[in-house]
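Budget justification note: compute hours in this period were largely spent on complex prediction jobs such as the one shown. Inputs:
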Amino acid sequence: MSLAEIAVPEVDPELLRSGGYGELLARLRTRSAVDEDWSALVDEAVTMWSRPGFDTFVTVPRLPFTPYDYQVNAAQTAIRRMRGRAILGDEVGLGKTIEAGLLLAELRQRGLADKTLVIAPAGLVGQWREELDRKFLLPSVVPRLGEWERSADRPVVVASLAAARRDPLRAALTGERWDLVVVDEAHRVRNPRNASGRLARALRSRYLLLLTATPVENRLDDLFELVSLVAPGLLGTPQEFRRRHGGAGPDPTGTVRDVPALQARMREVMVRHRRSEVSVQLPQRLAETVRVTPDVEEAALYAAVAARIREEARDAKASTLLALRSAARMAGSSPVALAPILAKLGWHELAAAADSAPSGKDRRLLELLQRRSERGEKVVVFSAFRRTVEHLATAAERAGLSVAVYHGGLSRQAKDQAVRDFEGDRDVLVTTDAAGEGRNLQFCHVLVNYDLPWNPMQIEQRLGRLHRIGQQHDVELTNLVTANTIDDHLLHVLETKINLFELVIGELDMILGRIEDDLDLEARVFTSFVDAADDGDFTARLAELGDALVDARRGYLASREATDALVGDPA
Amino acid sequence: MTAAVDFWLRWAEREGALHESAPDANLVVLPTALQDSLELPEAVVVTADPEVARDEGGVLLASGHPALDRATEDVLRRGDAGHVSLAAPAATVLDAASLLARAREAFPVDHGRIDPAGIPARERVPVLRVGAQVSYTVGLDERFQERAETWVELPGRLSLPTDTTTLLARCPRDDQTSPANAPEGLTAALAAAHERLADIAEGRQVVLAGDAAAARAGEVARTRDYYDAALTTLDRRRRSAAPEKLAMLEAKVAATRAERSRRLDEVEEKFRPGYTIRPFRLHVLWVPALRLPCIVLRGRREFPLALRWLRPTRSFLPMACPNCGMREALVAAKDRLGCRRCLPRAAVVPVLPVPGRAAGRTPTTAAR
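Corresponding output:
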């Protein structure tokens, strides 16, 4: 038998027809030479297209930050062991968002998550979008009136739970077949009978991530419901589960049977890291509040403005209420910031008074800046309002300090330059909350809140710019507040009731969310103010809010303990 | 500039785009065809920096962006085909005696000996290089793509060992020489290469599917039990329910059944195995070689044989059994040249005791 007679395997004709080898073979027959540049381009395309097994996360080297090993491990465990349906249950502040983002980016990179939905509390929607955008280079879209731009440019839909559980958005979201659904603060969807729980159960998705630091609230059944969302049957039927572990009672830990078996089951579906188990040590936060007594003129102005706001708000339309709320916040910032809105409201006399009124906080701020400057310490001064920022920058420069200014009205280049200047030779960066978004200022460790956002999550964001990985010093925070203002009362509640400034990142949201889903604290404070008969009544109302915060914090801590007891060791 | 942006710009340039690069952004002017296919305007800023993209309204060209995917897809769809002539090494060509010695060392023949049958002649041996992407799917946690490559020499359709292909890949080109003709046996060599790629993928998939089988069975069983129990409970409630509640319970049963079926489908989908081979490269490399005409001698019997010495790698092309095509050590039988695998034992003559050997030991394979 000659070689030619030996059976030759045939190329599948379909492979040739369908363009597999056909076109390439045809080109070979033309005897054309290899184009080396093109070959190199093909090699790069292959590299970009290749995705090895999930033991290698192809996206990690391409991200603009370096995640912690435990975060990558959590994402890998969720993909490999839990096959993309998992509960990410790290303690607050350890980066469940990062873990979910890693998994999302990886699935997307591999073509497995073209359609992704993130459901988060309304207050976290912006934060999710920022994290996805800046950390994972994944632009997102927020649905409006049940519609969203279905563009591959914006591969992730981020919706608030409040909007998602109601039509028309609910119908639109449940009508879609998603590749991946991420539910942040997923303890809010554990009840299958409420609107949020029904929404979570109606969504169709191949992969599902539930993010919650407290999967167990009041009853062991809470855990059963959450687990049954990601892996129906893993804990058996409800009857079997109760028979094995008990669970309907009010104390989730006291009556549980066979905890080791439950913990073993949970490890199949849940990843949980505790702060004590991972080597993430952030420096301390040291907070002080400086209550500034206003001089007579300033106090009179504030009292007049507050009274006028309360009076006008009682019969105001929604749009006017919004303007009044802004005025109330600006009054807590500085007279300079306040003047234009007073003029806009037609309160010209007050506007004129504001234009010329002094601010006691200015003097205290300049003293503090001088002191820090002499020690060679840089300071970031935050204000919510651009006019205040400009006013403070001018005042600081007049006092001989070198100042960089940052606000949302600057071009990107000017913003970059401001941060570079501050990192270089400037003593002070005076900035609006625009610098709270995505700017790393951890080369500085002193922060001043010249005014106080009424939304504590915003306070946390300001702090987060300095109090983050890479910070070498304890972060020193000074809150400047004018005595007997709304800000003063609110700050008192936040400090005394929940120790706001020393909470771990993320805990604040856990506490606020327990008072009410999507609690709008700013609106609550303003309503309390305008509804109150007088300042005494307002203080009493804030005290009630403070009590609710205390209860919420207690509930959160109990829930954390229950979770630790039931879920046990990390996966 | 990231690798992704660099890749995209080079691709776009080949498609007729012009670009001006700055450190953090690139202004690109696209021809009409690209504007249409990418759904981008004529002038566009592309960048890998999200902040630049946001502030300047540019396109953030990161993994997963459709413009990048389209470029990758286009490059891979067109693939890479062509001929390459490799340069002969400057080193002196081995003389015939040395070649013969190396041939005898590389290809030992039972019952026979390789002898020269002519003088070595220079030639170019075509070698087919096939590159492909293999996508495996064995459930979610074993879903990945790999690059696979195989090199097959055209005369014998045998795959080349890795050390040889590594050297060939590094070998400089000879741009002065172009192939006179398309090589013969190209389709057959391609079939052999494809079979080799399929063998690799098949073997891999069997292992992967085996690993996932237990997990799949467990998940299916758990899901069934869960929903069956839910349906049993609903059925019990339905039987004893007040008439006004029947419709609600019926609806619940229907919803639970639908959910059960959907979930079971999802589980099946999650574990469905498969692989696809997508070729992206066919190169024919013309490798400078020496053809060594030989015979295998067994007594007075002669069996012709041609060996090829690859000059860049200083190694012989692998050789298949001329009788069965297998890659086995050769055996010279009485009537033909074969290999240990294909020649029946009867064709191999038992060895007679060699004088001087210890009596009573009879080797099972012959030598005379």
